[in-house]
Amino acid sequence: MIVTAKTDIGKVRSENQDRYRVREISEGTALAVVCDGMGGTHGGGVASEVAINAIFERVFLSYREDMSPKSVKNLLVSAVMAANSIVFAKSKEEPENHGMGTTCVCALIHNFEVYVASVGDSRAYLLGGNGITQITSDHTVVALLKQKGIINDSDAAAHSMKNVITRAVGVEENVDVDYFELTAEKGDSILICTDGLTNYIPDELIYAYAYKKAPEEAAAELIAKANEGGGKDNITVAIVAV
Question: What is the pTM of this model?
Answer without folding.
Answer: 0.93
